[in-house]
Amino acid sequence: MAENVRELRPRAADSEKITINLGYVDLGHIDLLVQEGFYSNRTDFIRTAIRNQLDRHNDAVKKSVERHQLDLGLRHYSRQDLEAVQAAGEVLHIQVLGLASIANDVTAELARQTIASLHVLGALHASPAVKEALTDRMR
Hints:
By secondary structure, this protein is of the alpha/beta class. The chain has helices spanning 24-35, 42-56, 58-68, 79-87, 108-114, 128-133; strands at residues 71-77, 92-102, 115-125.
């Protein structure tokens, strides 16, 4: 990239884009609150609403995470991690609430040999070949 060119909106590494449909009246209410200065934009309103709901259900979420034995946050699996699992003759049962990422240099064959099951609540970042190889192991 040239020195005088800047990327205006780089993709945030810690977020995932979603799309929602809202009724016109709800959207109008949001726009009114933005116009009145309660929120900086629609996204700010929506993020705040989501965080408020997550806070409201915080105890239930904690109990569920514990009950399902989910890893919370970011969990990255490198090629070296999976090769060590393979060398030990073991397999992984991956359960993540947040972001699970599998390194780009992990082959589909290595993923199939070392990942017995995959349950991700949030987002999975992996190559298309690895995602395809694990389709039958995802919940």
